[in-house]
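Consider a typical record:
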Amino acid sequence: MKQRDTMVPVLRGGRGVIKASLGAAAAGVILLLIGIFVDPARLAFAYLTAYVYLVSIAVSALLFLMICHAMRASWPVVVRRLTEAIVKTMPLLLLLFIPLLFGLRTLYPWLRPHDMERLAHKAAYLNRGYFVARTALYFVIWIVVGHLLCRWSEASDREPALPVAHRLYAFSGGAIPLVGLALTFASFDWIMSLSPSFYSTMFPVYVFAGGCLGAIAALTLSTAVADRRGLLPGVNTSHYYALGRLLLTFTVFWAYSAFFQLLLHWEANRPDEVEFYKKRIEGPWQEVSAVLVIVKFAIPFLLLLNYRIKRVPGALAAASIWLLAAHYIDIHWLVIPELGRPGFPYSFLDLAAILAQGGAVVAFAVHRLRGLPLLPINDPRLPEALAYDSV
């Protein structure tokens, strides 16, 4: 154990990243405060967009971590600590939900007096108290599951005799449905209920596919940065190739879920459901819809088909930045049209919200990673993971 410990660098730095991230968060908060006086309604929608974007990445990272444990996959052991760092942001994301409580009536029609009568048949589910209680339950599930997985994983670094491998395997396999159901209902509550007459059983699949693509992109970018700084000894081109394959897989999966959701509603041709798409093919949203297909599917699909690109860390890092931006455009496309305003679809408040929340989340993730080895040094699968070779 001690010999292997000395071979794995412990993250001691990161202060520069934390300071820069907190600086971005402070700038975002200042802009958000301006937005309170300039356009509070647009502020609420911008904040929700950034919030859903970050939560979708964190929860999808948790699901990816659990799937890797449940499969007893070897190569993901190399990137487990970085995945756990994303998962550990969940408590902060719970706190970041609090500002949304002040804008619920602005965001959701089912809380506005003149719409309550029209939506009375959904009042048993769509009401403020139940909405907040469900959100609390989602985070209890995500935080408890994530905390246990991370705590057991880190405990093995200190005590190599602890039998945590089977515990991680069994717990992950049993908890995946629970975490997945929480994500399903969160997508219904936070996004789909913005348009309460619209419903789709494919919607949580669409959100999950986009979130997983964002999570793998964030993990790939983090891996490239840590590797460049010498914090991930043993990482080779095969590990990047595996991450690149996942990026390509979830790019196709996202496009598949988007297409079949559209196809189902196109075939049904119900006015109450078509309204969701009608809002997104009129005015400037028509161009945004076209751009979304190009930037989140066509371009990354064609690039990631290339064998060599998936084995070059710099190229994959650039592709990951691209896909993270594309995922934001996707969430923005889901949320902002429900505001029902014509004109240019983007606002300085969108930048403010992502700076404020994203800066805080990145700083928190790096802070919680400091002092830890970036490889699970006593995992029995680590030697196999470091020797991973894929052609």
Remarks:
- Residues 9-369 form one domain.
- The CA atoms of residues 74 and 381 lie 6 Å apart.
- The chain has one domain: 9-369.
